[in-house]
Amino acid sequence: MKRWLTKPFLEVANLTRGTEPGSESYIDSTAGVRFLRVGDITGKTDNPVYTNATQLVLVTEDDLLLALDGTPGHVSTGHCGAICSGIRKVDVLDKRNLSPGWLRYALKAPDVQATIKQHARGVTILHASSAVPHIKIPLPPLAEQERIVKLLDEADELRKLRAQADRRTADLISALFHEMFGDPVKKTSRLPILPLGEVVDFGSGATPSKENPEFWNGRTPWVSPKDMKAEEITDAEDHVSAAAFEKSNLQLIPKDTVLIVVRGMILAHTVPIRLCRVPVAINQDMKALLPKQPIEPEFLRWSLQAQHPHLLNQVSTAGHGTKKLDSDRLRAVTIPIPPLPLQKEFAARVSEIRAAQSEQSASRRRLENLFQSMLHRAFKGEL
């Protein structure tokens, strides 16, 4: 292991803290300046907000950003707009001795991330600004920095290419649906079309009393909107017991049922629709689509997913501001009804795409492990 000179973070870089405009400065349209919250630079949110405030810290795609609140330690570039108070803009003080690329990777290195995690404080929201004075940046010769940055950039580019390929594969299912069954909104096929309410019944969800521990910590996943991020639902953060079904109005939803979120702020930009691959219970912000006639679950799911923009247009706002998808509007959404063998053919082809996605996921994990290994070795002087 090589021994390099190290310096405190604040001796090699300048940190500019973002601002927090008042709520009256936020606007809903795409006018004004894009306001970047921590979730926007970490990829956890995709519902942009804008601001017309005047006192802002502006950043461009080339600026290095470090999150110290919410997701402390996240390092990012490629964003334009104004940053919130939980984000710091990082500027190298002396580029003759420190490459910006080296600093970007140094902040991602295991030792620095461990320091940030060690000093993070908070319960619901973590804060780690107190970690900054404890961060040390190794400073090999500039030529050595640039050599290592080039190697890490190449490994990082492989990760990005893999992610792009994964996104394209995910789009294949929607394209396949349109190819086989046409556009369900424009009704471009000659297939029979029925309102969803004639095809399925809606199974409702509930929340058993949290004050009764007998209802919780069982084996059945209790699915709420926060669990609807996985492509298929096989588990949930919370679980309910048999007693919850016996002593409350909770229903057991059979496996291979389509689940949809019908209430919550996520409906401002996304209507989550997923298949549960195990028996589950759901909370009151969701519905289960229980077929009245034989229908392939995968086909039913994608008959709705393929018209996602139309579903978003059916979302309204309740009196207290929460977004909702009314049952009557959802029942009125129409779907094509192809012959069952054609539905099964679609499901089989979806399974093939899923298998390809699984292989790609394994490849993505291998590339991630390779990158993390290189990052670790780089700052141990072993590259």
Structural notes for this entry:
It is a single chain. This protein is 36% helix and 22% strand. The chain is α+β, with helices and mostly antiparallel strands and 383 residues long. The protein folds into three domains: 5-139, Alpha-Beta Complex (Adenine-n6-DNA-methyltransferase TaqI, Chain A, domain 2); 142-182 and 338-383, Orthogonal Bundle (Helix Hairpins), CATH 1.10.287; 192-336, Alpha-Beta Complex (Adenine-n6-DNA-methyltransferase TaqI, Chain A, domain 2). Strand 21 and strand 22 (323-324) form a beta hairpin. Helix 5 runs antiparallel to helix 11. The chain starts with a strand and ends in a 5-residue tail after the last helix. The mean pLDDT is 90.
Residue share in helix: 25-40%
Q: Tell me about the largest β-sheet.
A: 5 strands, mixed
Distance, first to last CA: 10 Å
Which runs of at least 5 residues are low in confidence (pLDDT < 50)?
none
Please count the helical segments: 11
| CATH T-level topology of the largest domain | Adenine-n6-DNA-methyltransferase TaqI, Chain A, domain 2
Q: In what order do the strands lie side by side in the largest sheet?
A: 3-5-4-9-6
Mean pLDDT reading? 90
Domains (count): 3
Query: Any idea what the CATH architecture of the largest domain is?
Result: Alpha-Beta Complex
In the CATH scheme, the class of the largest domain would be: Alpha Beta
Apparent shape? elongated
Instruction: Work out the number of β strands.
Output: 23
Name given to the CATH homologous superfamily of the largest domain:
DNA methylase specificity domains
Structural class by secondary-structure content? alpha+beta
Assess the beta-strand content as a share of residues.
15-25%
Query: Compute the gyration radius: what is it?
Result: 25 Å
